[in-house]
Amino acid sequence: MLVGCQVVADRHVSTDSIRIAFSHAMSEMYRREVPKYGTLLELVAEVNTAVLRDDPVFAARLSEIDQLSRISDERHGAIRLGTAAELSMIRRLFAVMGMHPVGYYDLCPAGIPVHSTAFRPLTYDALRRNPFRVFTSLLRLDQIVDSSLAAEAEEVLSRRDIFTPGVRRLIERHESRGGLDEGESEQFVIEALETFRWHHRATVDLTTYQRLHDAHRLIADVVSFRGPHINHLTPRTLDIDAVQRLMPARGIIPKAVIEGPPQRRCPILLRQTSFKALEEEVQFMDALGKQQVGTHTARFGEIEQRGVALTPKGRALYDRLLNRVRESVVPSADGGNADDYLASLSAVFDSFPDDWMTLWKDDLAYFTYRANQPANLRTVGIPSRGLLEQWITDGCVAIDPITYEDFLPVSAAGIFQSNLGDQATQEASVDSNQEEFERALGSLVEDPFAIYQRIQDDSLARIFDPVSPESPWQD
Ligand code: OOG
Ligand code: NI
Fold first, then answer.
1. Percent of the chain with pLDDT over 90
2. What atom of ligand 1 comes closest to residue 302's alpha carbon?
3. Protein residues with CB under 6 Å of any ligand 1 atom
4. Which of 38, 220, 229, 245 is most buried, taking the most CB atoms under 10 A from its CB?
């Protein structure tokens, strides 16, 4: 049985229900494969419970805007793919679960030979039900300097199929019939999970692995295995500083600094920290069929705290301030300059307004609107900005921050790098290529700003516009 399963027209299960079932199944699998992930989940749950207990105003607000129920279930994962065909098929697989590509992230400027997108739900309703996201990267073989090694990698990748025949059939069924029934949905979750499973056996011999590894650890990780194992699964915490502090006592050593903005009264965007990848035993096979034992480090753990989504203006300010910090100090992998970095971060970010009303007034962040006295507002039509401000100040209308659902390229590079080790950082390239990525994907990526703007506009229309439907958020 799919938990909380919602059957829609034509006896099709909703894409939201399939995503909920899949994200639970993935979490169970990862908990079995990486026990430290289970420990981290427990710690995050304890800290979240304590935050809500100690701050009833915050808890009430979360529950009022219907965000409370999603918190403990909330997580993201990441995979790295090898070919355009894999990327376009994974797009079709995620679509079965109502997850679509949002945003383009180029990691090449940070010396990581991938470009990426995030598959995630798009509407307020779907996000509220379960916001599961997967950061999905495509290896850029054109960034490998040694062309014969690149050709060999391409050849190895062309021999694998990371999807089961069953999942391919079910994806086609979803596309041709517009959905899956209950039995098919259950089967889909089982088959789709296979793509994300860890493989103890490599598909290349140890020497090839080492050559790929020497070119870049990431290349060895993508090319040497039968599938794109999920490399981390990240729960959402309400207090990342507390979790970071408590991790060592549970035997988990986090990276030295939290990526993203500093601690603030009004959290913005995304703060993340990770623990180092495990060294795992892998079996290799030489050309004569003799077994060789080696190791590989790929899978790690991460936690995150999500804040308000920023408008293009707010995001430009964030990028400007972060660049200013990083011009003076870049956090080193060994954490030696962590204190300097954090001091500079907090000093520079002092100029980023830190109260909700200023963030709204200066058009730095996105908010939904709620009427505290819904009675007459729908008759007046959409008010001017000035009048709206008056009503917000009077308490007639409340504003609630819209959660940031995406990722940050500088933070993502920091997470990649902490697991690849500093020595893996190679020459930066600035050869960004969103069109090529979208060609491989087989579709355009959605613009995240447009999604937040739509959610904000819809909420305003719902309380002020007499012609907008009274019904809850539209899918
Ligand atoms: C993805 C790293 C990026 C995040 O949270 O920014 C990421 C990877 O290592 O494949 O997951
Ligand atoms: Ni992550």
1. 60
2. 5
3. 78, 80, 135, 137, 231, 272, 302, 407, 411-412, 415-416
4. 220
